[in-house]
Write the structure tokens for this entry.
Amino acid sequence: MKKTSIISHLQFLIIACCCAALFTACESKDSSRGSSTSWSTEPTEEIVGEEKAILTDPPMVPPAITRDHATKVIVELEVIEKEMEIMDGVKYMFWTFGGTVPGKFIRVREGDLVEFHLKNNPGSKMPHNIDLHAVTGQGGGASSTFTAPGHETVFSFTALNKGLFIYHCATAPVGMHIANGMYGMILVEPKEGLPKVDKEYYICQGDFYTKGAYGEAGLQPFEMSKALTETPDYVLFNGKVGALTGDKALTAKTG
Ligand SMILES: [Cu+2]
């Protein structure tokens, strides 16, 4: 059957998210959580065994979970500040979870006990943390994961709620860290699993605010005044102009 980028197959799932409103939304959400210290580490079912999470770069997602029981899942994610092209000929100093924008995709099962390791690369200039909206309590892990360059923090949580959740850096100024690329997704699969599909992809929209106008060549610094007025120069899927077009187009069988 001919391959096409047209998303027409019924058994075709796109895991998509929209970060456009995240810049302001996250700050208000964080404050609403307060400083709860109730941790959701009590297992809701028996934890059997242990495994290391497979993390993937966008637009790919880790394989579906076939386990019929909860386990201990070890997630190791490293913050890396790195210069990449935001458009051919235009560079930007991205702050990333795992070296990509959006950050690496995390997949666990409802009921899993997740041991989360956040590293901050020694080459980083800033401290960072992580707020996973799949976590119940303590800023989604933010207050336990404030990590200086060259260091590592660890915290654990039980994945109580199934669903597809955003994660992001929650270090002040939060909006700046998010605008520099610090967001990604974690999927908590329901215990009974998800319906079988042919393909799954990971797409995340992000807004970028640069000193120069859209397309201006060279290394473009972050421009706070544009971020504060929410007037982005770039509104992108997966962190670069053309990230999902041409030979990078997502493909599926027609149906
Ligand atoms: Cu950060």
